[in-house]
Amino acid sequence: MEEDFTAAERDALYKAIFSRRDVRGQFRPDPVPDEVLTRILLAAHHAPSVGFMQPWNFIVVTDPQVKSRIHADFARANEEAEAMFDGERRSLYSRLKLEGIREAPVNLCITCDRERSGSVVLGRTHMPAMDLYSCVCAVQNLWLAARAEGLGVGWVSILHEDALREALGIPERIVPIAYLCLGHVTHFEATPELETKGWRKRLPLEDLVFRDRWERRAPEIPSPPGERVRVRGSRSKDFQASRTPQPHRLHAVHPPHPSPLPGGERGIAPPSAGPTQRARNASSGPAVIVGRAASSSCSSAVCRSVQADRSTRGAAVASSHSASGRASSTVQAASKRARSAS
Amino acid sequence: MEEDFTAAERDALYKAIFSRRDVRGQFRPDPVPDEVLTRILLAAHHAPSVGFMQPWNFIVVTDPQVKSRIHADFARANEEAEAMFDGERRSLYSRLKLEGIREAPVNLCITCDRERSGSVVLGRTHMPAMDLYSCVCAVQNLWLAARAEGLGVGWVSILHEDALREALGIPERIVPIAYLCLGHVTHFEATPELETKGWRKRLPLEDLVFRDRWERRAPEIPSPPGERVRVRGSRSKDFQASRTPQPHRLHAVHPPHPSPLPGGERGIAPPSAGPTQRARNASSGPAVIVGRAASSSCSSAVCRSVQADRSTRGAAVASSHSASGRASSTVQAASKRARSAS
Question: Per the CB < 8 Å rule, is B12 touching A18?
């Protein structure tokens, strides 16, 4: 099959994925137009579902009284949650803003009707949570669509399920999956707030990937996102350009956090006891951004902040696509640029 | 905040969402380059996670022996699953291809480590499934990224969890969330196979949306996706162009199934007993596609097939975006075109 997404389209998807945030504190009061809401709900409705059962419903909440009631339950639940932590952790927790229920113009509850297509569902017999998971896929579709529409979304999970059911009249047979706040925002943070505020750090992808068996390291994939750009001819053993014979076109994708943070805690013990097979040099210098995206079509606020974030953190991911022969000169130019910059 | 996604970028995201398919039968054997795999895994790793715990791992399976072992379990599970259905339904089930385990060059198991950040997790205290759901968000990110990379993905849920654990060495404390098949494909189907083959139909979005309370209809949102295009000045009560004062630019988004199928079974009893408040005329004529996307930048195979699908099914969704003033002439032209075409 011919590739049916252009590089620009692919980049746009990655842009949504990498710039999506869990928004709690930047909601603006202006209403979300119905047609925008329709589009993002349609995106949710086009999520995959087990046996094509489409078990979701969407309760759009704009009534301030309903929001206040749910917010009151959040306040109770959050006190309980805070009490689970001790000392400094509790102090930090208490300073986090964890919801935007009243400020966000729209709240949205996504539910799962487990009986939607009868008791036997194709694909659910052996993995009974599949219908719940389908609804989560709908949440993520909606979240990304909202991001592309310029809408922030925050998932509030510090609620008592019973209180939520009561506030929204959700019957016993229906499972609430997600309670979301959404609306236009003053800005999107360049990094997740829980990272900025010191709660936890992003883990290095390479520690999370195994090959063929739990804990068996995958030395070739993925290439460590914290590495500086590797292009063909520079250090191709570290960043293998391709296994296919075609020439390649390079472009940068836009992960705001491609690197393990310099000196940062890992937050997870590496499953294998041995040292990782590649040195990490994420903190050794400024980012090298090569290729099309860097040169560069994207001048949006997010991209600028991502690039600022990159240049302080010092990493970029260069990647190559199977592409037509004419792209090879781009590769060479990009490769040259990368070498001279590093 | 200024809009930071262009209309083209937004459309690209919707294109991925609406053209994503659960692929079982069209895998090609050519390998997936490591750097492509890295990108889609990085997309998964940038999913939202409760308390930023990032509880996922990714086991990349390419060993034919491991695949065969898992396929053997699928065969057993599938016999059991088939036996759950009777008569014609069983016969139809038996003709469905429900996995591509051996054909797909890459299988991928996504798991959840519920203890990754200790026993108390920010946001999980009151909704204990949140860590599992975070991993599902990662699945959906990966699925969309794969689609934009031209890779098909199929989620196989007809497996015994114990067999899967054993085949991959997954320890007891780790929860397998998803087993995916992925690879390049000969083509993407324009419609979900379970729909094409008569298993179930897509539900009308309007039946799934409530306002402020369970089963309370949302008459304004969403506008019925099965409606023919409504633009400002034609039937704006049915498709309200906007609540904001700005002029609008129209463009079509690309849902392959915007319409309730003509004469199709609904598959779900409408929760409210009364008639829906708007007539459905999805089957009354060919699609009217207005605006930029229709006129039209997208000539990809998918878009062509979507348009073919549309013209036989008879519907399109026109939508409006907040945009700059110069767009108003586009609106008027599109509106005129739509009226003369309908």
Answer: no
| Residue range A22-187 in CATH 4.10.640.10 | no
- B28 to chain A: which residues are within 8 Å by CB? 1
State whether B174 and A214 contact (CB < 8 Å). Answer: yes
B77 and chain A in contact, CB less than 8 A: yes
CATH topology of domain B20-196: NADH Oxidase (3.40.109)
ipTM of this complex prediction, to 2 decimal places: 0.72
CB neighbours of B328 closer than 8 A, spacing ≥ 6? B247, B248, B249
Domain spans of chain B?
20-196, 207-262+281-341
Q: Which of B33, B148, B215 sits opposite A13 (nearest CB)?
A: B148
Distance CA B162, CA A63 (A): 46
pLDDT in tens, A106-156: 999 999 999 999 999 999 999 999 999 999 999 999 999 999 999 999 999
Half-sphere exposure of B245 (CA within 13 A, CB side): 0
pLDDT at A219: 77
Q: Could you say which DSSP state residue B217 is in? A: B
* Spatial CB neighbours of B233, under 8 Å, sequence gap ≥ 6: B335, B339
- Answer whether A117 sits within 8 Å of B300, measured CB to CB: no
Q: Which of B7, B11, B4, B10 is nearest to B300 (CA)?
A: B11
Nearest to A196 by CA among A79, A309, A103, A28: A309
Task: For residue A186, give the 3-state DSSP assignment.
Answer: coil
Q: What is the DSSP string of A121-141?
A: -TTTSS-TTHHHHHHHHHHHH
| Contact (Cβ atoms closer than 8 angstroms) between residue A93 and residue A79 | no
Cβ of residue B61 closer than 8 Å to a chain A Cβ: yes
pTM over 0.90: no
